[in-house]
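Pasting two entries for a bug report.
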Amino acid sequence: MSEIRFPVLVEKHVLNIQGGAGHGRHRGGFGVVQEYRLLADEAAFTTAINRTRVPPWGVGGGQNGTTNIMIIIREGKEILRTGKIMNFKLKKGDIVSIRSGGGAGWGDPLERDPHLVSSDVRNGFITVNEALDIYKVVLDAHTAEVDQSATDELRKGLQQTI
């Protein structure tokens, strides 16, 4: 709809996996990356977004989420990273990248179902190494299948006491 009403091209609308989300028994949801390329010769950009410094806090042993940010990209280079700006002059071809942060985790990451961790790896949300380091889930590096006995042994006695 933006492209119909304004001289912009929507270049990207994807989950903000790189920005991350809080780990926990229930992982926080991922934010979104939206990128708009300016098609007009020039424009003025003003923004004021929240949660740019303090991330959503984890609950019950879950890890904090991540913050929001706006980025201006000119000729392939990041020229501004901000949460608040007034009347910034954009040029034709500039990209405004809006990156919303991920939600916080709830509960001890060691209580996350290993099969959900495996699914997170298969979906590209986390790596095999993150599955091991954060969730203490042992996965086959090629198939992301859970090694349940190795996971149970690794997790034994590690759960947080809250």
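Entry 2 (this is the one that rendered wrong in the viewer):
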Amino acid sequence: MVLGLDRARRSFPVLLGALTLAAVAGLLVCDVLPGLFPARSHDLLAAFSLTAIAVAYLAYQAAQRPPILELVKAILLATAFLFWAANQLWPGLPQATEFNDVAIALFVLDLFLVIVGWGPAATDSSFVEAGRVVKADKQF
């Protein structure tokens, strides 16, 4: 059954996404109650959250089997998250600023590519924009 295959292909990204949300909740609790957590917990939770969502997004994109340009954009975005995670995990490294700068550059490039319309438009119904109906210059 095709629907079953879609669910099977999406289960890993969904499970990893849920685990990431739990880690983010832990990160926020760590902000409010830092005494409950061991030293460096905040850095580890932040880096894990960024890495896990990057992997979940790549797995989600792989399950969608997008056109190559969309896959390249997904890899670009995931790489930005990984550089940001490196910056969070190793803030004391001399390269931490470069990790952060590469992440910023990749995020900016990704959004610029979206703005200029690089790659085919997303048609996946999971995107809010895909469900919008436009008639006579009005959106419904």
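Dev reply: Rendering is fixed now. As a check, the viewer should reflect this: The two ends are 33 Å apart (CA to CA).
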